[in-house]
Specification:
The structure holds two protein chains of two kinds.
Chain A lengths: L10 E12 L2 E13 L4 E5 L6 H8 L7 E10 L2 E2 L5 H7 L4 E4 L13 H11 L7 H11 L5 H5 L8 H13 L5 E5 L7 H18 L2 E6 L2 H7 L2 E6 L2 E7 H6 L4 H9 L12 H6 L7 E15 L5 E15 L3 E6 L5 H8 L7 E6 L2 E3 L4 H10 E4 L13 H11 L5 H14 L16 H13 L5 E5 L7 H18 L2 E6 L2 H7 L2 E6 L2 E7 H6 L4 H8 L8
Chain B lengths: L14 H4 L12 E2 L22 H9 L3 H18 L39 H37 L1 H16 L2 H10 L1 H5 L3 H28 L2 H8 L4 H37 L11 H9 L7 H28 L8
Helix pairs in contact in B: 2-12, 3-4, 3-12, 4-5, 4-8, 4-10, 4-12, 5-8, 6-8, 8-10, 9-10, 10-11, 10-12, 11-12
Classes of the chains: A alpha/beta, B mainly alpha.
Amino acid sequence: MTETATPKPLLEIKDLAITFSTPDGPVHAVRDANFTVMPGETVAIVGESGSGKSTSALAAIGLLAGNGSVSGGQILFDGEDISHASEKRFVELRGNHIGMVPQDPMSNLNPVWKIGFQVKETLKANGLAGDNPKQRVSQILADAGLPNPEARANQYPHEFSGGMRQRALIAIGLACRPRLLIADEPTSALDVTVQQQILDHLDTMTSELGTAVLLITHDLGLAAERAEKVVVMYKGRVVEYGPALDILRNPQHPYTKRLISSAPSLSAQRGDKHEAIVDEIVPGKAEPLLKISNLTKVFDIRKGFGRKEKFTAVDNASFEIPKGTTTAVVGESGSGKSTIAQMVLNLLDKTSGEITFDGEQIGNLNEKKLFKYRRRVQPIFQDPYGSLDPMYSIYRTIEEPLRIHGIGNSASRQKKVAELLDQVSMPASTMHRFPNELSGGQRQRIAIARALALQPEMIVCDEAVSALDVLVQAQVLELLDELQREMGLTYLFITHDLAVVRQIADNVCVMERGKIVEQGTADQIFAAPKSQYTRNLLGAIPGASLI
Amino acid sequence: MPENQNFNPEDGLQMSKVRAGKVSKYKIDHYVAPLEETPLQAVDSVKETGKPLSMWAEAWRSLRKQPLFIISAIMILAVIVVAAFPQLFTSIDPNGQNACQLEYSNEPGRPGHIMGFNLQGCDVYARVIYGTRASLLVGVFTTLIVVILGGALGALAGFYGGWIDAILARLGDIFFALPLILGAIIVMQLPAFRENRSVWTVIVTLAIFGWPQLARITRGAVIEARDADYVKASRALGLSKFKSLVKHVLPNSLAPIIVVATVNLGVYIVAEATLSFLGVGLPGEVMSWGNDISLAQQQLRSNPMMLMWPALFLSVTVLSFIMLGDAVRDALDPKARKGA
């Protein structure tokens, strides 16, 4: 705060309006947006999907979708209005002056070209390849924190992990030393620990180069932790902006307040309202509903020519779920947590070990018993767009389990479907609609209604809220919590997000590479994690340390 | 910026400091938009207005606005009406006693006989109208058999995988490797077929060589749909494996099958014409466009119009089916589907 002279902003968005023309008429994606990015500053745009955050940023680099255009206001980059700049001007700006790190590291590298070639391409396009492009490429990859850059440059994208690819993409984005870097959800596809590394790395590189960063994210905790300034967008408008920490600690606009109270990483642990049930469960006293002992799953991976390799996805896992409680299984991708869920649901055969549900072993159930078991244990899956049959109306979707199990006649089933919709707070008129007309969160509520139709005792939630925006996520978690209190449901909650665990779980199992490395009550895990792995996971939750 | 007064921006380089949040060296205003501008709405409110639309209803809505679809549908309807009631379009019955009179051989058109006469003195227009039925029958029934046979085998192969898939895929490959026309010529020469030539032998022959293509398409679509979460969910609800194939996987695989089947219908009509032209398709006494083209070929120089008319009807019909297939593909394109 020593500098008193106000330097010119690097990027200035003035009264920006962006309109998409669609068959149903124009859609105003962004209206009257105002914010600035100063040189070397990190600014985060936060908002739910559809809030216009990505659209505003893409307009600054001239990459709006074909039917979108700037319909008002200005985008000033270093004083020059680029809101209607020609494609030629944007080509000059991109790379050299404005870099970009895209969202999905999996699809943004061309799989048929070597990494080194793709970096070289960027350099060449901007005339920065120099006399010895090869050396320059390895220098850039080394800067990106990739060990052994010469060898790495000769590898193809599929040989890189997600985190390494994102590093390579950051390297490409920063290769030409742009003055502004637009990072569109750069880590939302990655595990939290990898996310932390990548963002640390991005921080270091951009502060070394003095690059300003426009960070687009849905995670307010992450934004507050990584940016100096936070811009909150809602329904295409900027509703609040200001210093990051100030926004986080002293939000003014009701929407920002709502965001902060819903963000799992920022909110407190499972509320007092739940303690009544937790207290009843004293270990050893209550009979566990589900008991898993020494569960192991080994997959055969075909290596061609009939050779097979064994891969142990779940290694000797044991835990118990007391009736009426929630046990979360947490781990990064590839830790085997979903494999456990599939085996509990009997959709996948176990290799060895035992799964006991209500005193009965599952795995060698006969058809009839399995059919009964299905009624008592129901799943909710991750992808809200994939878990409902697009051909089925909502009524048919929720009615299907009743029909399969021959419950009631068509009149009583109709009544039941309306009841179930009411339980998940959806209007009864929804039953005539189709999944494609509902949002992700609504679809997930329909999936919950379907799971509840058979009045199960246990629900297996496989990343059930991971694909949802924070506000919707909070809403669904609350719904699950309410249903548990009303109906005494038991949840097996599979997730990669420790922050969510704190909101919903009573007990936690932490998994690493197929093994359970730590288990205990949620309070124990969060207050005094024993294993290094859990500590890393906890430390990587963005924004947790700021409140 | 309250508790960070001593924060030096240079320290931002250290990672440990980063985790404590950053404070800019510039003064940043704290702006709050007036609430009236963006009133808060309920989180994730449900749209209750508007008519509910299934995927098919939505496809239909977009289809009926497409000129390509409207034109091809009208033409196909016309062809179907002609095939069903040829007598509505001509008063001359080409199968009748006095349908062909040699005295008119190769005469050009005149009132009442707008397309003229062929070598045998038969009215070309009446023959073309009555020939529609055989061509359409071959197209429709071949497509039906191919969809049922190819669809079923492809669905089983795709859904169950493993050895069923391996056997069916190899079997399909064998048929796939034979060119349709060449294979059909050989089959039509087999004694059982040669002696019982009729519309049905042509249909069966074309179906034998047509199913592998549909089986492949179905297999691909089924493989895509079978791993969807809603199939897993239906299994967890207690639906058997086969029932989940019938109730969930197949309905969701229909779109590409319908598209390919529509386009192929036109292809089979052409194949029938080709076989008849080569003299191995429909028997000579069955009136069909292929047979007429074959007959006309002999007088191509003296009376080219005689070949023109059946060929024109054939191309327009085939074009309509291919256009319809294109229009349906656009409407059912999963990428264009809302929300998916």
